[in-house]
């Protein structure tokens, strides 16, 4: 079965991290080392988007070694961490990649993400996002942060671009390693 070619306007999906790719919990040991729990479904979402020609990245207010490791592990195309001023970061990303805001989907969960609502092409929120974010979101996912919201968003972006669910996964299933799939 050959998959349909993605025909949507989104060229980049950016994820906030805490509360989106994680459940928002911070695990800190006695030496101040932070640990984050990521969902494997969201890791596969990156491969799913990329196999259809859509770049992925992180735009997060927090920075940590565990996040840096996960970004590298997944092979993210964009990694901006430790930036609470997300509009400036968004402008820099657009300049660097030669795309416009309308070609970006962003997934955010808290008030720091609100400046991007209405600016990007599609603003998504996990179902457990802050009420102001839920009100501003173009799409509220069924999934909660850290519980597969990244995968849900990936599938929705592809569906909006004309790729059905079996067609979305066909290239991954045909060649996991060739697609760079990481859970």
Main traits of this protein?
six-stranded parallel sheet, 6 helices
Structural summary, described in words:
The strands form two sheets. The chain has a six-stranded parallel beta sheet with strand order 5-4-1-6-7-8, with helices on both faces. It has a two-stranded antiparallel sheet with strand order 2-3. The relative contact order is 0.23. With 183 residues, the protein is an alpha/beta fold. The protein has one domain: HAD superfamily/HAD-like (Rossmann fold, 3-Layer(aba) Sandwich). The protein has helices at 40-51, 65-74, 86-97, 131-136, 149-160, 165-174; strands at residues 12-15, 27-28, 34-35, 55-59, 78-80, 104-107, 122-125, 139-140. It is globular and about 50 Å long. 34% of the residues lie in helices and 14% in strands.
Summarize this structure briefly.
This protein is an alpha/beta fold and 183 residues long. It is 34% helix and 14% strand.
Percentage of β-strand residues: 5-15%
Morphology: globular
Low-confidence stretches: none
For this structure, what is the CATH homologous superfamily? HAD superfamily/HAD-like
Q: Radius of gyration, rounded?
A: 15 Å
Task: Please write the CATH class name.
Answer: Alpha Beta
- Going by CATH, the architecture would be 3-Layer(aba) Sandwich
Please give the order of strands in the largest beta sheet. Answer: 5-4-1-6-7-8
Return the CATH topology. Answer: Rossmann fold
Number of domains as seen in the coordinates? 1
H/E element sequence:
EEEHEHEHEEHEHH
Task: Give the mean pLDDT.
Answer: 91
Largest sheet, strands/sense/barrel: 6 strands, parallel
Query: Structural class of the helices, strands and pairings?
Result: alpha/beta
Measure the end-to-end span: 24 Å
Helix content: 25-40%
């Amino acid at each position: 079965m050959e998959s349909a070619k993605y025909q949507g306007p989104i060229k980049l999906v950016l994820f906030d991290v805490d509360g989106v790719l994680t459940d928002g919990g911070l695990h800190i040991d006695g030496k101040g080392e932070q640990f984050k729990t990521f969902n494997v479904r969201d890791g596969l979402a990156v491969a799913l988007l990329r196999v259809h020609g859509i770049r992925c990245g992180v735009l997060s207010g927090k920075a940590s070694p565990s996040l840096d490791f996960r970004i590298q592990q997944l092979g993210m195309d964009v990694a901006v961490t430790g930036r609470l001023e997300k509009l400036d970061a968004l402008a820099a990303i657009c300049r660097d990649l030669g795309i416009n805001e309308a070609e970006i989907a962003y997934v955010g969960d808290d008030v720091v993400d609100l400046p991007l609502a209405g600016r990007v092409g599609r603003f998504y929120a996990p179902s457990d996002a802050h009420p102001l974010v839920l009100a501003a979101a173009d799409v509220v996912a069924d999934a909660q942060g850290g519980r597969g919201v990244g995968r849900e968003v990936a599938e929705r972006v592809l569906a909006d671009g004309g790729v059905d669910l079996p067609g979305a996964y066909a290239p991954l299933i045909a060649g996991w390693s060739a697609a760079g799939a990481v859970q």
